[in-house]
Write a structure and sequence with these properties.
- The complex is a heterodimer of chains A (236) and B (108).
- With 236 residues, chain A is mostly helical.
- Chain A has two domains: 161 residues, no CATH class; 51 residues, no CATH class.
- In chain A, helix 1 packs across helix 9, helix 8 runs antiparallel to helix 9 and helix 11 runs antiparallel to helix 12.
- Chain A is globular and about 55 Å long.
- The two termini of chain A are 32 Å apart.
- By secondary structure, chain B is mostly helical.
- Chain B folds into two domains: 57 residues, no CATH class; 49 residues, no CATH class.
- The mean pLDDT of chain B is 92.
Chain lengths: 236, 108
């Protein structure tokens, strides 16, 4: 029987390469967030603690505005649900994959940001590697990168001058690749096409700030309506 | 805001985020069989969600002002071409990002 530390080492080695694009994206985005907090007048331990407890990138940027505004906890709660509603879709997709991972399941769900969900969903984990530990390390490394960037940004703040314009495209590139991987694996492209078309239509109709919820409702309704025709054909 | 009001605000954000992440797992615990309809959604949703995430990343690109989305279009084409050619995730992502950085810093 393999020793526990060997299992963990193996999973870590397998997981790390999958997180390299996130490393590139997260120290940069995390730092941008830390700097934003810094110039908004918050000490560095605010972005540090918030990157640990919230760990939902776009929400943390919104949180800066919420903290600068009038005290309204219910509004903060409602806004969070709206912005993060897409996590419901991630959870439904991961019900099976996170099964049987023991205590690690709690952390896997806690840290299920866009990037951790996408990598854990699409990664082909080697047969001899422990799935639970693999996904645990993907999630943990991603959160560490974000925490590291946010804290650095919070400490050094306005001292940093950017010559890295355009680096944030790394996240777009990653989601394009993941979308493409999924496309190459699936037999039926109806759901993928629906995702792009319905989101685009909603973006045009509702604008950049308000299109996520209508897109999700449209995707949900369309896939439900098409259930009879799609079932069985899309499984990967 | 006082410090306590800030703590409560952040607490509400954490609570909201965790609710959206944990709810499906609480509603459909692994001990019980998951309803067929939810299993179906679990299979078909990811494709659509990845599409949604791509659009989400591009939501602030304007086709009518600035560089009109041209650097984004070229770089996405580069990502797709690289990926279809070598099918190496890291190479496709790095290639597309470098392409975009060069375009926005030196061309547009």
């Amino acid at each position: 029987m393999q020793k526990k530390t060997d299992i963990m080492k193996k999973a870590f080695k397998a997981a790390f390469p999958h997180t390299i694009p996130i490393f590139a994206g997260f120290w940069f985005l995390g730092m941008t967030y830390g700097i934003y907090m810094n110039v908004s007048g918050f000490p560095f331990w605010y972005p540090m603690l918030m990157s640990l407890t919230i760990f939902a990138g776009s929400m943390e940027f919104v949180a800066v505005n919420l903290l600068l505004g009038v005290f309204s906890p219910l509004q903060a709660f409602a806004m969070t649900i709206m912005i993060n509603a897409r996590h419901l879709f991630y959870g439904i997709s991961m019900l099976d994959k996170y099964r049987g991972t023991g205590w690690k399941k709690f952390y896997l769900i806690f840290g299920m940001c866009d990037e951790s969900f996408s990598i854990n969903y699409i990664a082909e984990i080697p047969e001899d590697t422990d799935r639970g530990w693999f996904m645990f390390f993907v999630t943990l490394l991603n959160q560490f990168y974000w925490f590291f960037g946010a804290t650095l940004g919070g400490i050094f703040g306005s001292l940093i001058h950017f010559s890295t314009e355009g680096l944030d495209f790394v996240m777009t590139a990653m989601f394009v690749v993941i979308f493409l991987e999924q496309w190459l694996k699936e037999k039926n492209h109806v759901s993928a096409v629906m995702g792009i078309v319905l989101s685009l239509l909603c973006l045009v109709a509702f604008g950049a700030d308000d299109f996520m919820i209508p897109s999700m409702i449209a995707i949900f309704a369309t896939l439900t309506f098409m259930r009879g025709g799609l079932e069985g054909g899309v499984s990967v | 805001m006082t410090v306590w009001q800030q703590v409560i605000t952040v607490g509400m954000i954490v609570l909201g985020t965790m609710l959206t992440r944990f709810l499906p797992f609480l509603l459909f615990p692994s001990g019980k069989p998951t309803p067929k309809y939810i299993q179906y959604l679990g299979k078909v949703l990811p494709s659509a969600v990845f599409g949604l995430l791509v659009i989400y990343c591009l939501k602030n690109v304007s086709l009518f002002t600035g560089s009109r989305g041209i650097p984004e279009a070229i770089s996405i084409a580069a990502v797709i071409a690289l990926h279809l050619w070598k099918r190496q995730m890291l190479l496709s992502i790095a290639g597309g990002t470098v392409c975009y950085m060069l375009l926005v810093q030196f061309v547009f």
